Amino acid sequence: MTRKASAGEVAPLPPNDDIGEAQRLELYRSQFLLREAEQRAFDLFLQNLVKGTSHLSLGQEAIAAGCAAAMEPGDLSFCTYRGHAHTLARGVSVEKVLGELMGRDNGLMRGKGGSMHLTSVEHGVMGSYAIIGAHLPIACGAAWRAQYKGQSDVSVCFFGDGTTNIGAFHEALNFAVIWKLPVVFVCENNLYMEYTPISEVTAVKSPAADRASAYGLPRILIDGNDADIVYRTMKEAFGKARSGEGPSLIECLTYRHSGHSRADPAKYRPEGELERWKLRDPLKIYKDRLRQFDIDDVRIEAIEQEVRREVDEATEACKAAPTTSSDILFTDVYADGGWAWRN
Amino acid sequence: MAELTYRDAVARGIAQEMERDEDVVFLGEDIAKAGGVFKATVGLLEKFGERRVRDTPISEQAILGAAMGAAMTGLKPIAEIMFADFIAVCYDYIANEFPKSRYMTNGQVKCPLVVRVGNGGGARFGAQHSQSVENWCMQFPGLKVVSPSSPVDVVGLLAAAVRDPDPVIFLEHKSLYATKGEVPDGEIVDTLGTAKILRFGTDCTLIALGMMVPRALAAAEQLAAEAGISCEVVDVRSLVPLDTQTILGSVARTHRVFTIEENPRVLGWGAEIVSIIADEAFYELDGPPVRITTPHIPLPAADILEDLAIPSVSRIVETVRRSMSS
């Protein structure tokens, strides 16, 4: 295989590429789709077609795409309120996600959950949780079920750097280790907990990785903007979980290109920081990677065109979809389908 | 038929359900090897093994979160929160996670679990180990809340809670653990959302829950003997779902109503019941509904003080006599 050197690339690539062309093309397609879909969500918000709040993963796509590619069907994702990317990466359609954000009847939960609670059980997306830390213990419970029933699925729990300072993080880590649960905790360290630099409010430099030793786990800190690195690291962690060797805690260093939520212009960031990180944009890194492996730009552009068309079609479908039906206001409070709390 | 203590009824109810269904698992602090701090789960580890009966660290969020994750994906966990007061440190699951997951996901996520908690006062444990927290739990749409007052109800309602497809908070009263009652042999399964009339009467209705039930019964006995007042006693048993029809039916017969609540006064469960009666049975009433509650204070530790705070048989008797004669 011939390789073209690119700026900053020093580590030699393995002679027999372990990821392979098909998977690489899929990783690029997935990241590009997350980028386009998130950008579209933002545009729709500017058009007042997305209400409420939304927390975008622009700039963090390599983590969602790399993890999802490493997961097997049946593996379970537990996401946060910044969960659009993780939901889409598991194969949920753009239309379902945008429809949910827009409160349309074609939405993933027909508008009952909204941006922060995307869930698609059929895709293994077991929920997006908007209370910081809540879903780490929940992921432990799902992993406990797999262990108890002798099932081979892994529970993967995504969270931000800010989560490492809440109690549930520490309870879940300890719990997962002592019960040796098949759960993988993935910290997306984008350097800011909401509006505050994580370094200003954390006792250690790497908020997740530097805590790992407290739970007897290896320190794993990776470049979260390189989908290949994410993919390989996750494959190893999922393999460990599946073979009964217990949990992993993986910190992925990344950066969000937008503010914390739609209301945040992110003016607290030092000048030039965003620009520096954009040089390490996961899509740019990955496009260069494809070129290193002699995948020509025509094929890359074909993927991009296809994704753009998918996002455009989804957008039009959502705009044309009816708003959600008022008759679901009272459904599914209880398992009988209704809301009756008294006779 | 055997005479069982309320605490032994807990272990029997759990065992009955674990024998029936391999998906029922049990976790909590000191529940396995130690048999529970109230000795309500003795023998379960020996019977079902450490795969199904699991001690946990002091991590209430991990306990409830793990129960939820297991319930979402196919198990039917019973989780113990040792003292009801500790619900405050894992309240997110009670308030935000268990009850909302089904609704928010448009019915995709299920949460069939039971949280057993040692509720209530009378044990001189002071303000952080004695509270009655039923009103902390009953306010969230999506949860069910049950509180048995007798050993037979412990077995039957626990079985019903485990078999229920919704999350159920099961409030055991700490001061009832040593009480005894007849429990039939064989499988017992009760029905959530059903109140029980434990004593029929004609002059007024006493509506009680948990430890207030035996006190209401004792007060009714005394009121009949000493004042000729015939009290009907309703054991609410299930706050959610609430058996409003049994309550309204009783009020329609007696025309006077008293709620007897261990919780501090503000927003106690009786307030909701009185509100329903005011809405739906106002013209049945011959006098104002009366709420007999713990005053709106934290519970003190000293026996003499705690006994003054929690509604006693004599306070119930005095309040009913005074109200009925005015």
Q: How many separate domains make up the residues of chain B? A: 2
Spatial shape of chain B: globular
Secondary structure tally: strands of chain B: 14
| CATH architecture label of chain A | 3-Layer(aba) Sandwich
Oligomer: heterodimer
The topology string of helices and strands of chain B comes to EHEHEHEHHEHEHEEEEHEEHEHEHH
How far apart are the termini of chain B? 45 Å
Helix content of chain A: 25-40%
Q: How would the global form of chain A be characterised?
A: globular
Query: What would you report as the Rg of chain A, rounded to the nearest angstrom?
Result: 20 Å
Query: Which pair of chains forms the biggest interface, and how many residues does each contribute?
Result: A-B, 52 and 51 residues
Contiguous helical run count of chain B: 12
Largest sheet data of chain B: 7 strands, mixed
Please tally the helical runs of chain A, counting DSSP H or I stretches of 4 or more residues.
Answer: 10
